[in-house]
Amino acid sequence: MVGELMVKSFETPDETVSFENGRSERVQLDGRTFWLTTVEPGWLFSRDNAPALGTETCPVPHRLYVVAGRMTVEMDDGARETLSAGDVALIPPGHDAWVDGDERAVFFEEELER
Which terminus of the chain has a smaller tally of CB atoms within 10 A, N or C? Predict the structure, then answer.
């Protein structure tokens, strides 16, 4: 249960993480972590993020809302979906992802327990 009104802004995030072709901004409220991620055309998780994590595909689950643009997600088993602005998705660990098209993709998510 939420105990008190709390407000933070991604205009002044608690942390900004920059990586090749994108960035993620983090805010924390009441022990919960929220991310706003912007990835540019040409971004590919397996090339731009995976090496820093020491993995080939993303080991993190996601529950996200696509704010803008298009992003394709491909699971290790070959299942593939293209997400567009307005879509909500649950993505289990073991996936690659990339910006689909010439527009940056922006998505919001609450960090899930790993």
Answer: N
- Three-state DSSP at 71 gives strand
Beta bridge partners of 36: 25, 108
Tens-place pLDDT, residues 57-69: 999 999 999 999 9
* pLDDT for res 104: 98
Mean pLDDT of 20-44: 96
Distance CA 38, CA 25 (A): 9
- Tell me the one-letter amino acid at 81: E
Domain extents for the chain?
60-114
- Per DSSP, the chain holds a count of helices (H) and strands (E) of 2, 9
| 12 vs 20: CA distance, rounded Å | 21
